Amino acid sequence: MSQSEPTRDRIIGAVVRIMGADGAAAVTNRRIATEAGISLGTLTYHFANQRDLVEAGMAAFVAEETVKFTQLADRAAAGELDLAQAGEILGGIVTDTGFGGDHIAWFELFVQAARYPALHAATTEFFDTYDRLAVSILRALGVADAESAAPLAVATLVGLQLRRLAGGGSPDQVVAGMTELVAGFAGRPTA
After folding, report:
1. Residue 127 burial (10 A CB sphere; 0-12, 13-18, 19+)
2. Residue 102's pLDDT is what?
3. Rounded CA gap, 78 and 185, in Å?
4. DSSP the chain
5. Half-sphere exposure (Cβ direction) of 157: Cα atoms closer than 13 Å
């Protein structure tokens, strides 16, 4: 965190880090102020209530994910991929620790969106971004109907990631499962 970063951005970054590490229940004014290096008064000047803080944090998370996964989709679309390269891209998704590690913030977004309809647009954008990435990967692997297979691939990735986080598994398990899935879509053996 840089003191030269605008205060509102520092606050939002603190919210995302806290949610990613410990969930929405851990988002308290004192913890945010400490994490952002600001006073409580400064926090309440920028955000009147917790709902606004959570919504701003989730919107920032989705925006960051959108940029990251659009870049990955462009990389996948740039040429034909082999399964190892697809696995590398998938591995990057599940091992990225930019927001508190292990993408717990993903699941906080889902839970908060269920509670607050104002987050539905952000959640839709989140899934649209992942669908675009999946379409790019599947097309690069030569999957004929990548658009139809992409939502299944995304749902599988999210499910495998949730299972890993809840059970303490390894990111390699998620990558292996996704590699098997895309290999099946592409009609290729994995070994």
Report:
1. middle
2. 47
3. 20
4. --TTS-HHHHHHHHHHHHHHHH-GGG--HHHHHHHHT--HHHHHHH-SSHHHHHHHHHHHHHHHHHHHHHHHHHHHHTS---HHHHHHHHHHHHH--TTSSTTHHHHHHHHHHHH-GGGHHHHHHHHHHHHHHHHHHHHHTT-TTHHHHHHHHHHHHHHHHHHHHHHT--HHHHHHHHHHHHHHHHT----
5. 26
For 22-73, the pLDDT digits (tens) are: 877 888 999 999 999 999 999 999 998 888 888 888 888 888 878 887 887 8
* Residue 158, SS3 per DSSP: helix
Q: What global pTM score does this model have?
A: 0.76
Count of H-run helices and E-run strands, the chain? 9, 0
| Mean pLDDT within 103-118 | 79
